[in-house]
Amino acid sequence: MQSETVPALDGLTIRAAGMGDLPVLAARDIDRLGQLYDRLERHEADRGELLIALIAGRPVGHIYLWREDAEEPELREHLPAVPLIMNLWVSDDHRRQGIGKELVARAEADLSGAGHREVALGVHPDNTDAIKLYLSLGYEQWGYGQIATCKEPARAGKERFANDICEIYVKRLNG
Ligand SMILES: CC(C)(COP(=O)(O)OP(=O)(O)OC[C@H]1O[C@@H](n2cnc3c(N)ncnc32)[C@H](O)[C@@H]1OP(=O)(O)O)[C@@H](O)C(=O)NCCC(=O)NCCS
């Protein structure tokens, strides 16, 4: 599934990312370099999709669509084959301009276009800004409580810890 470039808010473009975007993406979001590299690798292998938002050619945000089986057993049990959106991020100087909403809307449109009827996401219970955004877009808590997830991408020989607590939200997608 590859997104086409579509203009969103005035001056904002959202398009599928490529490995060539990594240096600029990492420059804006250096704490997430390893995670972004992992997402780009999955994207290039057609296992998911990394979308980036640009203004005047400069990345100002991103979101990842996880289309593989979930890593967390609770998600595989209660939401089998439901894709996840994750790694939503908007640069500090561009927040509260609707870019986060646009990124989520675009992710949903791509998933809906690919035939998915539901989408899920995990968010830390203290992340009230993000939760407000998701609630405003019609996401609802899934009802099975919080789960522990791994923030770090899986890497051969590297131990991972599921220590990131998440609340799971779900939304039905209109086909
Ligand atoms: C969460 C995040 C992606 C929101 O991006 P954004 O582009 O600022 O969001 P939007 O402008 O589309 O906001 C949409 C709605 O979400 C809510 N919202 C977003 N940020 C908010 C804030 N700081 N305070 C209160 N409400 C907020 C509001 O309801 C807002 O609508 P409004 O501006 O009309 O009131 C951004 O703050 C971010 O990158 N945070 C750090 C990374 C992160 O937490 N990602 C989410 C991981 S689950």
Automatic annotation (TrEMBL):
Keywords associated with the record: Acyltransferase, Transferase
InterPro entries xref list: Acyl_CoA_acyltransferase (IPR016181), GNAT_dom (IPR000182), YpeA/RimI_acetyltransf (IPR050680)
Keyword Acyltransferase set for record: yes
Cited CDD domains: NAT_SF (cd04301)
Domain N-acetyltransferase: 12-164
SUPFAM superfamilies: Acyl-CoA N-acyltransferases (Nat)
PROSITE patterns from the UniProt entry: GNAT
UniProt keyword annotation of Protease present: no
Protein known as: N-acetyltransferase domain-containing protein
